[in-house]
């Protein structure tokens, strides 16, 4: 049975290059994380390639059984995994945060194991017979981000393994320990060579992974600029890609809402993981007739959500994971303040503090083309824009080049569905924002990427379609 100390010791035994890891909430030194090079990556790819035929030769039922064993291992180590995640990433243990993420890693692993994917009979009549099979692609290269490092790694790992691929995973440089610990726990029950992890810089290890001709598929969650570089680097090999890229999700509140009833759901739509979520609500458009009431009710909820060190059980909001992200949020809020927008809550960070804490911030009466609206803040600052014309606000919601998620808030479902149909996004939620389900496909539109994860669509995305006809 793992403890925090034994798990940390197991993943930091390394004789090569290392990087010091500090708690973003306290500045406390945690450990030295290993930093690998391209030679280590190439060896890991070769290991994965050698292990892949035997793994692919297993039946779906046999691979699913291994995934359930991996999920059991995650569950057994849930508390030390959550503690390490909280210390390194900053998110609190409670609320939709560290324990929630570890539980999600377990749950999504089981979902990938249990999702049926039978052979599809396409035609069976007098014209002929044809059926669709889905074969492994080989080695999947997975590149996971720092905001949900364990959960998103599982979104890449579990379906890939289920479909008979092996995996080489490069975690984000600032949350290496969390993902190393997750892989360590899983590899205690998986066959050798099936799941490999190589922490290292994106500029070297990540770049080499995307360029390798031995990689059949790249799965990446991160920024749009990096996604574009991956597209270019992988193009000579015609590598298959699933890219979940940046977003700047819009929410539209229609006139016929109960502001008090929707306030808490609005809050968590925007501030889950302290706003550090690709599909979080990042710009909120509220009809003039309910604008003041929505702002007031949302401020009441936000003011009562405790922020602080993640290991303190009462906190549900934490620091920004790194100082660079703190600086982005700070710059965008200062831009809004300089424009004359109204600060309803927050907006006054202690820039000299040790931790990367940015206070929960609501900005009202802001121009719809202010930087805080147009740029993805990826932190705890929400601009709230007043509107009166529905066609105009739909145009504002759609005008950006990104389109990951969106939401419509209304007591009239038919009206909400009609507005949702006009929004350009991979997902539009009704009276909620950002809720994910392991059986509902998820991915972006426009520059927010392509490909889908989760459910049957997610399994098919990490496999090669093969038609057998005749």
From TrEMBL:
The family this protein is said to belong to: Belongs to the aldehyde dehydrogenase family.
Domain Aldehyde dehydrogenase: 13-465
InterPro entries: Ald_DH/histidinol_DH, Ald_DH_C, Ald_DH_CS_CYS, Ald_DH_CS_GLU, Ald_DH_N, Aldehyde_DH_dom, LUC3-like
PANTHER family: ALDEHYDE DEHYDROGENASE-RELATED
Keywords per UniProt: Oxidoreductase
Superkingdom assignment: Bacteria
Catalytic residues identified in the record: 244
Name of the protein in its database record: Phenylacetaldehyde dehydrogenase
EC number(s) per entry: 1.2.1.39
SUPFAM superfamilies, per the entry: ALDH-like
Organism: Leucobacter exalbidus
Claim: Zinc is one of the keywords in the record: no
Taxonomic lineage of the native organism: Bacteria, Bacillati, Actinomycetota, Actinomycetes, Micrococcales
A molecular function GO annotation: phenylacetaldehyde dehydrogenase (NAD+) activity
């Amino acid at each position: 049975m793992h403890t925090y100390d034994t798990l940390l010791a197991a993943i930091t035994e390394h004789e090569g290059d290392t990087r010091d890891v500090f708690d973003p909430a306290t500045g406390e030194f945690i450990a030295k994380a290993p930093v690998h090079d391209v030679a280590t990556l190439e060896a890991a790819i070769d290991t994965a390639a050698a292990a892949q035929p035997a793994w692919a030769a297993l039946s779906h039922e046999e691979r699913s059984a291994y995934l359930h064993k991996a999920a059991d291992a995650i569950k057994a180590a849930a508390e030390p995994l959550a503690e390490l995640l909280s210390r390194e990433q900053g998110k609190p243990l409670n609320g939709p945060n560290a324990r929630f993420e570890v539980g999600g890693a377990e749950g999504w692993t089981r979902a990938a194991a249990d999702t049926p994917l039978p052979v599809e009979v396409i035609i069976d009549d007098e014209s002929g017979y044809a059926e669709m099979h889905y074969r492994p692609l080989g080695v999947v290269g997975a590149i996971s981000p720092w905001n949900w490092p364990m959960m998103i790694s599982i979104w890449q790992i579990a379906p890939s393994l289920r479909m008979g691929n092996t995996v080489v995973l490069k975690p984000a440089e600032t949350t290496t320990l969390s993902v190393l610990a997750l892989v360590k726990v899983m590899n205690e029950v998986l066959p050798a060579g099936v799941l490999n992890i190589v922490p290292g810089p994106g500029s070297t290890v990540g770049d080499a992974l995307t360029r390798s001709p031995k990689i059949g598929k790249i799965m990446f969650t991160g920024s749009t600029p990096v996604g574009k570089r991956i597209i270019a680097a992988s193009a000579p090999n015609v590598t298959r890609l699933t890219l979940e890229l940046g977003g700047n999700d819009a929410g539209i509140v229609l006139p016929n809402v109960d502001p008090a009833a929707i306030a808490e759901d609005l809050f968590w739509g925007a501030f889950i993981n302290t706003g550090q979520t690709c599909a979080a609500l990042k710009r909120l458009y509220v009809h003039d007739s309910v604008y003041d009431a929505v702002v007031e009710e949302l401020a009441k909820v936000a003011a009562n959500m405790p922020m602080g060190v993640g290991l303190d059980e009462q906190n549900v909001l934490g620091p920004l994971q790194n100082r660079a992200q703190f600086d982005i949020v700070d710059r965008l809020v200062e831009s809004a303040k300089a424009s004359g927008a109204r600060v309803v809550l927050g907006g006054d960070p202690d820039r000299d503090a040790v931790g990367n804490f940015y206070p929960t911030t609501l900005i009202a009466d802001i121009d719809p083309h202010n930087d805080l609206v147009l740029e993805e803040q990826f932190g705890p600052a929400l601009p709230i824009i007043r509107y009166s014309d529905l066609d105009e606000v739909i145009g504002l919601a759609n005008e950006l080049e990104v389109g990951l998620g969106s939401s419509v808030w209304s007591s009239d479902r038919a009206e909400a569905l009609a507005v949702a149909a006009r929004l350009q996004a991979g997902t539009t939620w009704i009276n909620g924002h950002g809720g994910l389900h392991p059986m509902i496909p998820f991915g972006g539109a426009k520059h927010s990427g392509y490909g889908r994860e989760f459910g049957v669509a997610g399994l098919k995305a990490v496999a090669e379609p093969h038609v057998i006809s005749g």
